[in-house]
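Q: Could you fold this chain for me?
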Amino acid sequence: MQELETENNRLFIAAYGLEGELTPEVPEDHITLARADARKDMAAFLSYAVGCMMGRYSLDQPGLILADAGATLQDYLAKIPKPTFTPDADGIIPVLDGEWFTDDIVGRFREFLRVTFGDATLAENLAFIEASLGKELPKYFTREFYKDHLKTYKKRPIYWMFSSPEGSFQALIYLHRYNRDTVSVLLNDYVREFIGKLEEKHRQQTIVTLNESARPGDRTKAAKEISKIDKMLKEIRAWERDVLLPLAQQRLEIDLDDGVKVNYLKFKGAVVNIPGLDKGDDD
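A: Sure. Below is the predicted structure, expressed as structure tokens.
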């Protein structure tokens, strides 16, 4: 492998006329296979998949597809008229514990995997991915994806995680697809919709607890679920009222030329806090 990679480097250096600037030798500890990190590589693959969900990347064409301010799905389709994998319509992807929406990140990733590698190997590929990550996909996306994203982009993320204080509700947006109505869409089509779904589940579990013919174990489980939902609803409703609604009403504009830091801080309280961002260096 060391000899092959050295020879590859020699060929590329010759092809691009870089003999005076680069050397072909590859130290043993820099051999690609020696540096393989299954979790890191899989996290990068999932990041690419999210990029395809947002329209930043495409399975059909190399390079960036949507990378201008206020880009839309229509802009994507103008470049890729018949995509193998179609990006999310509104550029808002829920990241929740459980698949509450049809465009939830876990469901969208499974579809991405199916389209990319086929139905026949879907279960096998999912098992391989989760083994590489060391955890199930929902847990990775809800607890670790954004941390990895912040590391990759040095605390200047291109995907922003809107999140209630305790993370009961989370959703990703793509910086380049943000527009003045994005927070309103997030509020009305996702947060309030999620609250309604939680309230319905609360009603269903309450019926179980009041059913005297139900098994004691089922009634106990339902009571615990009700307690959990009560806490979630209290958190999300307060966040909706005190943070998201005022932001939606402001219809904030962002200027990509100002850099991620300036724009991200406009949404403080609505997005995941990035430690030290308000004290960090300028972009």
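A (continued): The longest helix spans residues 216-250.
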